[in-house]
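Message: Just now I want nothing more than another pair of eyes on a protein record. I am handing you a single protein, as its sequence and its fold in token form. As I understand it, each token names a local backbone shape. Take your time, and here it is.
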Amino acid sequence: MIGGRLLQTDKRFSSLKMSQKEKISDWLYEEYAKLYDKNKLPSDKRYNDYILNNVYEKISDADIWIPFYELRKYYFSKKNHFRKIYENKERR
């Protein structure tokens, strides 16, 4: 129990509500896009922890509980997708 709440320590990203998943995905893309704008290149592995830590802070502030490793796994599964979305927006 943390703060009077029982936390499920083995919670998976897929068990979040759809609105929570969308919010997290949007936050990850926003952080990814900020770094892409700043560096004029896709973010490389040096910035992964920076992006994940910023987003995890937003998740905590929104009272969404998900283990960090689940967020990390989700981010790496979507990172290439974020790059494609960003580059397609830039071409328009």
User: Anything to note?
Assistant: The mean pLDDT is 88. The chain has one domain: 15-91.
